[in-house]
Amino acid sequence: MDLKFCSLFSGSSGNCQFIKTEKTTILVDAGLSGKKIQQEIINIGEDPKKVDAIFITHEHLDHVQGAGILSRRFDIPIYANEETWNAMNSTIGEVKPHNIKIIKDDVEVGDLFVEAFDVSHDSVKPVGYNIYYKNKKLSMVTDTGCINDYIVNSIKNSDLLLIESNHDEDMVLIGPYPWPLKRRVLGEYGHMSNDTAGNLITRVIKKGTEIVLLGHLSKENNFPQLAYKTVENILIENGIEVNPGLCLNMTYRDRSSLVYEL
Ligand SMILES: [Zn+2]
Ligand SMILES: [Zn+2]
Question: What total of structural domains would you count in the chain?
Answer without folding.
Answer: 1
